[in-house]
Amino acid sequence: MAIEITVIPGDGIGPEVTSATLEVLNAAGADLTYDEQLGGVSALESVGSPLPDATLDSIRRTRIALKGPLTTPSGSGFRSVNVALRKEFDLYANVRPARTLFGGGRYDDIDLVLIRENTEGLYVGVEHFIGVGDDARAAAESVMIVTRHGTERIVRYAFEYARTHGRKKVTVAHKANILKYTQGLILDVARDVAEDYPDIEFEDRIIDATAMWLVLDPYRFDVLVMENMFGDILSDLMAGLVGGLGFAPAANIGLDTAMFEAVHGSAPDIAGQGVANPTSLLLSACMMLDHVDQGDVAHRIRTAIGTVLRNGDVRTRDMGGTDGTAAYTAAVVRALG
Ligand code: NAI
Ligand code: MG
After folding, report:
1. In a shared domain, residues 19 and 92
2. Which among 128, 126, 112 is positioned nearest to 168, based on CA atoms?
3. Structurally, how many domains does the chain consist of?
4. Please, which residues have CB within 8 angstroms of residue 160's CB and are 6 or more apart in sequence?
5. Domain for residue 175, yes or no?
6. C-alpha 270 to ligand 1 mean position (Å)
7. Which range of residues forms the domain containing residue 182?
8. Predicted confidence band at 74 (pLDDT cuts at 50, 70, 90)?
9. Is pLDDT at 250 greater than 90 in this prediction?
């Protein structure tokens, strides 16, 4: 029986990369049906809420969502719908693979996975201004929340992921030298959890040095695990190692619900022009297919993407080419055979 999933096309380039992704899923024979729902600025404008109840109800029913990027206003305005969705469904593990798909970039044969804690840290949004004299915004504070429970389950997820995917090493990246309580707790818990996995190499590394080593010698890493904001920043850095945000998929995994999305945002600078690279969302959809036991379809799609990228005659702008989303998508569909 076909599996029903919630699809949120989202904002900016979201609708463009979502329709490209659905076109490939259908051509590849994915056994899915789609419940399309609104989210983000487009939802705010059409139904008055960036996260409508109908969208939440749909995900509660299907337990699986494929989501395009959602625009979040900077500074003021509504809080991130992405963060709200991750919290609502307790999607605690954000799995972000960075794998080289075509040569000619800074490095060849990159194959890394970043596991980002998705529900705690600074992104819980516990913030306030502090007034001094007549300046109501003289200072501001954000609180970083780290729990033993939250840390243990994300570090354990990283080790389990390493085990089931035949990986050799887990690196926890932290800043325990400066933030002795929050980051110190992460380091302590990680060391404890690591003892349960003697078959997997474990190391801890300071986050800033990790950033340098990722650029200088990414091959020394395998699976990386870190708190929310560090993971947000380093996953974009790792996308840069494999050709940019156009090649960076992500899975947000909870106990009973999962949401698949690209690492990139709504790219307002290129939205509506038909030039976005849909590969990130397409690879996210492949992670979704793996998740619902349609790994054979995922494999066909990944192989087709690899064929198109290796041939090199159809390339979107971010790959140095001149083709649009539609031409690239058509090439992937043709390569499915
Ligand atoms: P962005 O990821 O949207 O764009 C950064 C740069 O990468 C831009 O130059 C863009 O053109 C390029 N880019 C991104 N995806 C691309 C693709 N598929 N093909 C070709 N080029 C691509 O980041 P930005 O501009 O900082 O954020 C824009 C909006 O997206 C903001 O409102 C932000 O809050 C939101 N955002 C949403 C995310 C989500 O829904 N998960 C994740 C990140 C940002
Ligand atoms: Mg990000």
Report:
1. yes
2. 112
3. 2
4. none
5. yes
6. 9
7. 120-225
8. confident
9. yes
